[in-house]
Design brief:
Layout (H helix, E strand, L loop, with lengths): L1 E4 L5 H10 L8 E5 L8 H6 L16 H4 L4 E5 L6 H13 L1 E2 L8 E2 L3 E6 L3 H6 L5 H7 L3 E4 L8 H6 L5 H9 L5 E2 L1 H9 L5 H15 L4 E2 L6 H5 L14 H14 L5 H20 L4 H8 L3 H10 L4
Parallel strand pairs: 1-6, 1-7, 2-3, 3-6, 8-9
Antiparallel strand pairs: 4-5
Helix pairs in contact: 8-10, 13-14
């Protein structure tokens, strides 16, 4: 099985869930991140080593395959696995056995492999950086995890203390789980979450420690959370564009707990446009209405509504 998605989308969470709901649930779940291990140690980590296999190998050591026997081995960032180790992994998948580093006796194992990556493995195959036969072996079942910004409905479910991250953080710290105010929950849902599920999890841990009360309010949220969560729809804007300034105003308002932003912003927007149009036409109302795309009656009504008569 192969799970792909951006960094932080929760690939290990999904792999663990698949393990818990499988016939192997009572056997070990072992996770190993290929990108976090020096290349010269990956073989030893995966397959173990015999005593004396290399300097410092003073005892026999089981590798992750042996530790996961009967269960699941989760190989995260499989795209970073060196080609020579890919060859050994393919042999294990084919034969169900391997040799420890420095060993001569085969070790038989029954392990289900779940691999994950944030990279495009098809492209790495074309570049000669990933074995095509291993890719096809892993790609029998493929699961794509969309980024958190594309599944915003999951944010409250992941954060609520009755379900996941706030509860886990509270259990780790030995305290009562915090509760999210509805406005805070809505604010979290509106953010872009560039760090995906991992960032949400870390935010829940931060709130468990730092939020003043038992209920988390919008003002309890860390400021850098908003700074790092610029919505994608505004990321292309020029720093001094009116849309960017409007987005910054809306961000400050939401952080302060404001609601009904449209009813607050629309009159100001109309007043600004109307004032500018009248200045441009030197006070000629009919010409100003034409520039704004309004009829004469609309202009008269707007002047009255906005207190500009």
């Amino acid at each position: 099985m192969l799970i792909n998605g951006e960094s932080g989308t929760g690939k290990e969470l999904v792999a663990h869930a698949l393990h818990r709901h499988s016939p192997r649930a009572k056997a070990p779940f072992i996770a190993l991140n290929m990108a976090a291990i020096p290349k010269d140690l990956i073989e030893s980590e995966l397959f173990g080593h015999e005593k004396g296999a290399f300097t410092g190998a003073n005892t026999i050591r089981q590798g992750r395959f042996e530790q996961a026997d009967g269960g699941t081995l989760f190989l995260d960032e499989i795209g970073d696995m060196p080609l020579d180790v890919q060859t050994r992994l393919l042999r294990v998948l084919a034969d169900g056995q391997f040799y420890r580093v420095g060993g001569y006796a085969p070790v038989k194992v029954d392990v289900r492999i779940i691999a994950a990556t944030h990279q495009n493995l098809e492209q790495r195959v074309q570049e000669g950086k990933f074995r095509e036969d291993l890719f096809h072996r892993l790609n029998v079942i493929r699961v794509h995890l969309p980024p958190l910004r594309e599944r915003r409905e999951d944010i409250p479910r992941l954060a609520r203390p009755s379900r996941d991250f706030l509860q886990v953080a509270a259990r780790e710290l030995g305290v009562e789980a915090k509760l999210l105010h509805p406005e805070t929950e809505a604010a979290l849902t509106r953010l872009a979450w560039p760090g995906n599920v991992r960032q949400l999890e870390n935010t829940c841990r931060w709130l468990t420690v730092m939020a003043a009360g038992q209920e988390v309010l919008i003002q309890d949220l860390p400021g850098e959370l908003f700074e790092s969560n610029v919505p994608e729809s505004t990321s292309h804007m020029q720093p001094d564009s009116w849309a960017t300034l409007l987005a910054q105003w809306a961000d400050r308002a939401l952080r302060s707990g404001h609601q009904n932003l449209l009813s607050e912003a629309q009159p100001e927007l109309e007043r600004t446009l109307l004032t500018t149009a009248l200045r441009h036409t030197q006070g000629h109302k009919q010409e100003a209405a034409r520039l704004l795309g309004w009829g004469r009656n609309t202009l008269t009504r707007k002047l009255k509504e906005l207190g500009m008569e």
